[in-house]
Write a structure and sequence with these properties.
- This protein is an alpha/beta fold.
- The protein contains 8 helices and 12 strands.
- The strands form 2 sheets. Strands 6-5-4-7-8-9-10-11-12 form a 9-stranded mixed beta sheet.
- A hairpin with a 4-residue loop joins strand 5 and strand 6.
- The protein is elongated and about 80 Å long.
- Keywords: Cell cycle, Cell division, Membrane, Transmembrane, Transmembrane helix.
């Protein structure tokens, strides 16, 4: 008798567990997304995209999760859709137990601005391009002249990274000009002269030599002595008097 009662109790308990699990699963399936929370984590520094921009992208792709069943909300698709935007570097989308979808977005970091007949765009810190924004201008070195995109994302990108990591040259180099033969000139902030870099080959060594020239020679002759300082020849600095 006791064994029969135990079997009945165990059976009822099992049925109860199955019922509760099914009930809550059905409840979760029918639960609708009640809100979408968007956080652009670096919005204080950069303003390439806004919350409204991101919501618009999702609505256009029919991926806005609000009022959709939570189990039908595909966070991977949301992330992939937003990453198509060339202003965005990283997206993390996830669901919360309270029935919300949260988005954390990081924008790209521009390190160079290209303004040329071949295009007008930024190069970011990962070596890709990003479009110019109407609402925000990044204060980065400007490259003008005959700039092919291949040059922009290779040699110019490496040069811009160097400037970004070197306070002295980042403060000194204001503009970069590329001639049709790919010869490069630098326009400094201090001094009324042009710096002929030549090619980007050995540019660190060339700038080390120029900095030494600034420290040793310029204090004796003054910033206005020369109109052109050429670094294009290996281990030489050739100056043209004004």
């Amino acid at each position: 008798m006791i064994r029969i009662v135990s079997i009945i109790v165990a059976t009822l308990l099992f049925c109860y567990i199955v019922f509760v699990s099914f009930f809550f699963r059905e409840s979760r399936q029918k639960e609708l997304c009640r809100d979408l929370q968007v956080v652009v984590v670096d919005s204080l520094d950069k303003h390439f995209v806004s919350e409204n921009d991101l919501v618009y992208i999702l609505k256009k792709a029919d991926l806005n999760p609000i009022k959709k069943p939570m189990d039908e909300v595909n966070t991977d698709r949301i992330e992939n859709e937003l990453l198509k935007n060339e202003m965005i570097a990283r997206v993390e989308a996830y669901k919360t137990p309270s029935g919300m979808v949260k988005l954390e977005v990081e924008q790209k970091i521009p390190i160079l601005r290209v303004i040329s007949p071949r295009g007008n765009y930024y190069v970011d810190n990962l070596g890709s391009t990003m479009p110019v924004s109407r609402r925000y201008v990044a204060h980065v070195p400007v490259v003008s002249g005959y700039v092919e995109k291949e040059l922009a994302v290779t040699d110019l990108y490496k040069f811009a990274l160097f400037l970004q990591e070197n306070d002295f040259w980042n403060n000194q180099i204001e503009q970069i000009y590329v001639h049709p033969d790919n010869e490069v000139e630098l326009i400094p902030r201090v001094g009324n002269h042009r710096i002929v870099l030549g090619s980007f080959a050995d540019f660190k060594e060339k700038l080390d030599n120029l900095r030494l020239f600034y420290e040793k020679a310029i204090p004796k002759v003054g910033w206005e002595k020369y109109s052109i300082i050429s670094l294009k020849y290996k281990d030489q600095i050739v100056c043209t008097k004004r």
